[in-house]
Write a structure and sequence with these properties.
5 strands, 471 residues, globular, 6% strand, mainly alpha, Rossmann fold, binds flavin-adenine dinucleotide, 5-stranded parallel beta sheet, DNA Cyclobutane Dipyrimidine Photolyase, subunit A, domain 3
Amino acid sequence: MNIILLHRDLRIHDNPALFHGTNAEEALVVYVYDKKYWQGNGKSTFQLKFGMDCLKEVSNNLKNRNIPLHIFEGNYEELKNWIEVNFPKSVIYMNHFTDIGYYRNDTNVFKRFYADQKRIKIFENFGIQTKNFNRDAWSFDWQKIMTKPILSEIKTSTPWSTKNIKLNSFEEFSSKLNLNDQMTECQIGGETKAFELMHSFLEERGSGYALKMSSPVEAEFACSRLSAHIAFGSISLKTVYQSLLETIPNSSFKKDLYSFKKRLHWHCHFIQKLETEPELEFSSMHPMCDKLRGDGDNEIIEKWIKGETGFPFLDACMQFLKKKGWINFRMRAMIMSFASYNLWQPWQKTSPLLAQLFVDYEPGIHICQVQMQSGVTGINLPRIYSVIKQSKDQDPDASWIKSQLPQLREFSADSIHNAELAETYKEIICDPKASAKKARETIWSMRANKDFKKLAKDVYLKHGSRMKRRA
Ligand SMILES: Cc1cc2nc3c(=O)[nH]c(=O)nc-3n(C[C@H](O)[C@H](O)[C@H](O)COP(=O)(O)OP(=O)(O)OC[C@H]3O[C@@H](n4cnc5c(N)ncnc54)[C@H](O)[C@@H]3O)c2cc1C
């Protein structure tokens, strides 16, 4: 018997573990729900809710193929014990994930146990390279992975085992989960939604993407909005990439689609860093940068994450993010830059709080982006976003800000952008110019240090993109 384990690969199509695992006389499909994982670094019910939408569709699709989905509640050690009691000769099929440390530690012991007995098959995921990884050939190898054939329909070989399996079905399990009803404005998960989004983006919505992606007003509709689907695997990255390559030649907005193509590449480029160096979850890429900021100030961090900084544009972004579970790249970068430069708070404390608000939380991307926007990688030029400039550039008449913060309805655009709202609004949390100047000076004086440069070179060799260099 094959046991197929699902985690963040919640789809029927192009799912290697499911495809190969079901190619047997008997197979069992199991989703592993570990409560502690969902309390881990950056995880939240926002994300769980999206995952459960995806799992519901997986369950229905499997049912249509006469395959029951079972939910195992517990960690991988408990799962191993359960398997060994019930199916001691089974073979495990699972896809690889680059995830938070809790998951990695839990699954590593599990994988080792089955690898020693030659009873496990692990399939690579996305374009992440886990074996014989060569940084210099990474892009070339990524391209090869992404253009491999899409796996066809899963097999529905019978008979499926019904042997006394005392695990809950999806329906029994989900009725116990009490997920927050207030998340109604968040995206809905599932393969159907993922394919709809992909087609509408490639065929229509993507027109103007390259320009519109910077504005929180336009990005909501002009970006693909596939991130949560890619993170929860309700669509495979290979499917998105190959559909894109098919669409480009006849598209009337090729430039926008090339811009999108670059980002699919970045997706794996960032996750690869965490895969290569899992310590990045807690330590800065450049080792000297961990000494920069102290322990942090919880009161300041709380004001920032609640959107109570006194800067209307930043606070509006937070309100939007809390409702939708998503915001565009530029605003994520600005929010993070504000916490790390203007408020000078350690990224290790702010990163999980921000991640919890993203439905599309992908630890590899999030943690590396957080580090980039905090100036601690040593290989990227620090960029300090001005909240006042972004406010004027992205929402000139302040109408979007007013839609998020209706209490500012009566104020002029100028006073909103400059956060000059007398006593009517929250007091500003810092002096934006003085704090940015101080941060810039501190970061650049450290970068000028000889030892810093030496270590930065090592970081580049381990993680740096070779694209620009080759060009
Ligand atoms: C501080 C910070 C944290 C972030 N955290 C996450 C995260 O947890 N999960 C996540 O998917 N993205 C993250 N991003 C990257 C980016 O903001 C989102 O991928 C994007 O906004 C998602 O919307 P979309 O799917 O419409 O993107 P599109 O613009 O349509 O891009 C298509 C896909 O490309 C990938 N992508 C896009 N931009 C980037 C990027 N800069 N780096 C890596 N991959 C990218 C994503 O998979 C995305 O779905 C973060 C960025 C910052 C600055």
